[in-house]
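Appendix B, example 12.
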Amino acid sequence: MLDWLNANVLWWHWVILGMVLIGLETMALTFLLLGIGVAAILTGTLAYLFDLSFSAELLIWSILSTLFIVGWWRFIRQKTVTQSGQASYRVDTKGTVTEGIEPPQRGKVLFDIPVLGNREWPAFADEPLSVGTKVQIVDVSGQLIKVTPLKED
């Protein structure tokens, strides 16, 4: 089989394969086939310029395809950073108690930045906290936020 492929697969077969894959990419819009198609065209170009066996061409195409796919994957997977999403807070986010917290009762805290989309949240603590106390998040437990008073340095 490999002998047949070495004798019958020519450089322009790779170029045609690449064009077909790029054409399919216009319908799929995944960028996956684009990288594989470009790799096939480059492989065909190298096969035209140099006398390569089918095995070498297949190896070059595999390497180039992997590089293009990894490159596109990294480009598309860039994280989008927003200030209004659920991931825009940190555990040490600071806030101010707006409704006193008397354990085990809840109070309310107004945070400096939105936490899970809201700035004001019901909160609980291990110790009583009066209105105006500066606090920071130590844990998020379901719909409640556990806070602790900020320590003065």
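The CA atoms of residues 123 and 141 lie 10 Å apart. The chain has a mean pLDDT of 85.
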